[in-house]
Amino acid sequence: MSGVVSDRLGRKPVLLPALALALAACAIFATATTVVALIVARLFTGIAVGAVVSAGMAAVTDVAGTAAGRPDLAEDPRVSGDAIDSTDHEDLAALLETCAAALTTEEWAEVCAKHSIPMAPVLELDRAHDDPYVRDGHLLDTAEHPTEGTVRTIGIPLRFSATPGSIRRLAPVAGQDTEDVLAELDAAR
């Protein structure tokens, strides 16, 4: 329903109240002292998410279609409004593939940034450590393994001033814990 409403009234008149409703839901969740308050907050969240996803994706379609040289997509019933037919998934996949290939990843990032659309590329594992977001957020780090040398591992992206996180141990080498595991299994019998 919110997709149709946003087609008629515009994207912002649907998105802004939906965001306000989501914030109200957060406030209710944070201060809830009864089950009724939690139910109301959950209801508000559901309505807000439905409106944001529907109108938000319509806004992305508007922008993406124009950027990909397909401004007609905004009026295409396969991708606009709430009446998207799941039987069209093969056509939609082909359409998406064509539109996505119209620009490079960097060009799509620029288009999205220009329109305040959150976007991040899907990174190949061997290139992920070079990405500024991954590097600066310490999503991947390196550590010294006692037998394997320097290894790349998942980092600790959260930073707490009083209790800083750290990598305390790395994956064991093959067979390192075999005796302990077998002893534990034997003790459990």
TrEMBL record:
Membrane among keywords: yes
Keyword annotations of the record: Membrane, Transferase, Transmembrane, Transmembrane helix
Gene Ontology MF terms: CoA-transferase activity; transmembrane transporter activity
Major facilitator superfamily (MFS) profile domain sequence ranges: 1-189
A Pfam entry, by short name: Sugar_tr
Membrane topology (UniProt): Multi-pass membrane protein
GO CC annotations on file: membrane
Subcellular location: Membrane
InterPro entries, sorted: CoA-transferase_III_domain, CoA-Trfase_fam_III, CoA-Trfase_III_dom3_sf, CoA-Trfase_III_dom_1_sf, MFS_dom, MFS_sugar_transport-like, Sugar_transporter_CS
UniProt-recorded name of the protein: Crotonobetainyl-CoA:carnitine CoA-transferase CaiB-like acyl-CoA transferase
Organism of provenance: Streptomyces paradoxus
